[in-house]
Design brief:
Chain B: It is a multi-pass membrane protein. The complex is a heterodimer of chains A (385) and B (341). Chain A has 18 helices and 2 strands. Chain A is mainly α and 385 residues long. With 341 residues, chain B is mainly alpha-helical. In chain B, the strands form 2 sheets. Chain B has a two-stranded antiparallel ribbon with strand order 1-4. Chain B has a two-stranded antiparallel sheet with strand order 2-3. In chain B, helix 5 (110-142) runs parallel beside helix 9. The chains are: A mainly alpha (385), B mainly alpha (341).
Chain lengths: 385, 341
């Protein structure tokens, strides 16, 4: 399709819009890119004055940790093929070996196996081969780019960051499953009922969404700390103290997220034609049967998108988890605040940077895989509503 | 749909919202008028130290918390009326500062300091977010199709990143002799420390917030741009409208509902400013309303949480968001009623 002549743009306009876009992309990616670079350098290099020192890391290189030209080239080649394989062959393999109906489970297993294989090849096999090659190749094999993984080892192994990681996974998994289960039912009900009650429920949900979370936490905290005494008349001696319990935090996060979830799922369900469940009802299904047999098979795109946003809420939360969980059950994001408090040496600072990058990496993957769903989720509420 | 079926579908969701959102609100409201303190009692203690010939004994009256039979401190809860609000607002100091006409004195009271920052933070970033978001959307819409995907991918990164980590990543670029501070120093020829005074911290915070929220505005505007009526645009061209006039009179009115939607979400989310304080570690200079409540709730050195003051400041925070949202909500309500006719 050719644009009409009057709509064509002058070169200056095209150039300035392109330049603006380039600057924006640089601004958007730079802080994240830079902390990733910093996390692989020794403390002196990471906080060096000159950007080139941070990138090439002379001090890191001097201590014997570095990549040679061969390392970089071969590493990039392996990375390129690994990513290409993940996007071309992996989906076919998953579809081939997975029994129909369990496709979500199949993808989980497939991704896990792929991740393990990738780690084995990239961090186990590749360094061995490269060690041999570097010895043989002489000048090409000497390190040019300083790079060390010490801080990641320190964070994950010595500081037991994996505990926080597991807690984060537990909390986010709980939040996503429960909020989707409760939310799809409510979203469907709200989308199909035209009553005034449904309208007012949605307005109330909007008001609840506006509440700052600290207001709610101020309500939970005294009750949660004293819950074993408050609940004793009901549950007897076994009454739990809710403070510090991951499942209590899951319930709290699910509820905080509920207003947003039902708004979003409602707008997705409104896009599914009502004739579909009316036809099922004519054939003698009850509302629940219609929901289970007719709507559930077609609702997955909306549910996946909403699930992504629930995941982000549970994963990114700082305020609720830092106040309602105790030190042993702490999730990743509040745990990083522990690094500030003892951040006295520059080594501690770079370890904090490495922890921050570790938290960001899964989100990066998430955007890479689910970009389309995230965009559709963002626009679903706005454009159609 | 019959009421019973409807109730069964929305029941679990409504129950959770009532239990974990509505009930805590009521309890915060009640707590803000109460104070819970340990009961103190005064006891006479005789301490004796060995001395020559006789022991030296002193008796003194000590105030200690009363213990029950299990060795726990007994606490009592009293109604104190507006006392906690008074502790948070410090109206006496506020009025005397007004009397002196001294802005700095008002800004020394935590609550007013937090309120000032939260409001400027919310209201100043709003036009910036909408402007930057619209500019990116127009530029992407202008770009060739093949680079749109990668640009959207890169643009989503600041939006999706954990807020604490996002603000930390900018903090690390400027802290101490971070590379960007060094660059600024070389450029201006002065010694700069970005985190020693509040106005530089605030500029970085505004930058962070625009960086973090503009992608959200961009994605929504971009989707909106796809539905602009091409016929209207073309007739505008025939009528001799310049590019700017077309943007002003065709595209922006078309995007108006989206601008209102983004403003609404932005007001709600930015008013909650909290993570940015944690990430920039700016407690000493700049605080926000949520951070104030959070600070009251974190245990102090003795392990006590100032719950009643936290509740009072939480209630005040809530009143603030209601005021802030009245205008845009009234406007959507009018539009909603207008479209119904």
């Amino acid at each position: 399709m050719s644009t009409p002549k009057a709509m064509q743009q002058s070169f200056a306009l095209r150039f300035s819009s392109g330049a603006f876009l380039a600057i924006w992309c640089l601004l958007a990616a730079f802080p994240i890119f830079w902390i990733t670079v910093m996390s692989f350098k020794s403390p002196v290099d990471a906080f060096a004055d000159s950007p080139l020192d941070v990138i090439f890391g002379p001090v890191t290189r001097a201590s014997g940790d570095g990549l040679s030209v061969v390392d970089i080239v071969l590493g990039l080649v392996v990375l390129f093929f690994a990513i290409r394989w993940a996007f071309t062959r992996l989906p076919a393999l998953v579809r081939q070996y997975c029994p129909p109906g369990l496709i979500v489970l199949g993808w989980l297993v497939g991704a896990l196996v792929y991740a393990i294989a990738f780690v084995l090849v990239f961090f186990g096999l590749l360094p061995l081969i490269l060690g041999l090659l570097n010895g043989l190749l002489g000048p090409l094999g000497t390190p040019v780019l300083g790079l060390t993984t010490d801080h990641y080892v320190a964070v994950w192994a010595e500081n037991e960051f994996y505990r926080n990681f597991l807690n984060s996974m537990l909390v986010t998994a709980g939040v996503v499953t429960i909020s989707l289960t409760v939310g799809t039912l409510a979203g469907y009900g709200l989308a199909r009922s035209g009553s005034d009650l449904a309208f007012w429920l949605l307005i109330f949900a909007l008001v609840f969404r506006a509440l700052p979370h600290s207001v709610l936490v101020a309500g939970y905290l005294p009750v949660f700390i004293n819950s074993s005494e408050i609940l004793r008349p009901i549950f007897g001696e076994g009454a739990p103290t809710l403070y510090g319990q991951p499942w209590a935090v899951i319930a709290v996060l699910v509820s905080i997220n509920q207003p947003f979830t039902i708004w979003m799922l409602r707008s997705f369900f409104q896009n599914i034609p009502a004739e579909l469940d009316e036809a099922a009802r004519v054939d003698g299904c009850s509302h629940f049967q219609a929901f289970r047999r007719v709507i559930m098979p077609v609702m997955w795109p909306g549910v996946i998108t909403t699930g992504l946003f629930s995941f982000l809420l549970g994963y990114n939360d700082f305020l609720v988890t830092s106040l309602l969980l105790d030190a042993q059950n702490q999730t990743m994001v509040p745990a990083i605040a522990g690094y500030f408090n003892r951040e006295t040496t520059t080594t501690d600072q770079v370890e904090a940077v490495a922890a921050a990058v570790s938290i960001t990496a899964p989100l990066f993957l998430l955007v890479m895989i689910f970009q389309r769903q995230i965009v559709s989720g963002l626009t679903a509420g706005a454009v159609k509503g | 749909m019959k009421f019973k079926t409807f109730a069964a579908f929305v029941g679990p969701s409504v129950f959770m919202m009532l239990l974990f959102i509505a009930a805590p609100l009521v309890s915060v409201f009640i707590q803000s008028f109460q104070v819970t303190q340990p009961i103190l009692e005064q006891i006479e203690v005789e301490t004796c130290t060995p001395g020559f010939l006789t022991q030296t004994c002193t008796t003194e009256i000590k105030t200690v918390p009363a213990l029950d039979e299990n060795g726990k401190t007994i606490t009592e809860t009293r109604w104190v009326g507006l006392q906690s609000y008074q502790n948070v607002l410090q109206m006496d100091k506020f009025w005397s500062a007004i009397g002196n006409g001294s802005w700095n004195q008002i800004m020394q009271i935590d609550f007013w300091k937090a309120l000032r920052f939260t409001l400027t933070f919310t209201l100043l970033t709003l036009p910036l977010v909408i402007g930057v978001g619209l500019a990116i959307a127009l530029a992407v819409n202008n770009a060739t199709r093949s680079i749109r995907g990668p640009v959207i991918f890169v643009s989503l990164l600041p939006f999706i990143i954990t807020p604490v980590i996002g603000s930390l990543s900018i903090y690390w670029l400027f802290v101490g002799d971070g590379i960007l501070t060094v660059m600024l120093e070389r450029w201006s020829g002065q010694n700069i420390s970005m985190f020693a005074q509040s106005w530089t911290i605030e500029i970085l915070m505004y930058f962070y917030q625009v960086w973090h929220v503009a992608p959200f505005a961009f994605v929504i505007f971009y989707a909106g741009l796809q539905t602009v009526n091409m016929d209207t645009l073309e007739s505008a061209v025939i009528d001799g409208a310049s590019r700017w006039e077309r943007l002003r009179h065709v595209i922006v009115p078309h995007l108006m509902p989206l601008i209102i939607f983004i403003s609404l979400i932005h007001l709600m989310d930015t008013y909650r400013a909290f993570e940015v304080i944690v990430g920039f570690r700016s407690q000493a200079h700049v605080i926000s309303l949520q951070w104030l409540t959070y600070d009251f709730m974190t245990p102090d050195d003795a392990g006590n949480r100032a719950m009643s003051r936290a509740s009072a400041s939480a209630m005040l925070t809530m009143i603030g968001i209601v005021f802030l949202l009245i205008l845009p909500l009234r406007r959507t309500w009018r539009d909603h009623k207008g479209s119904a006719h």
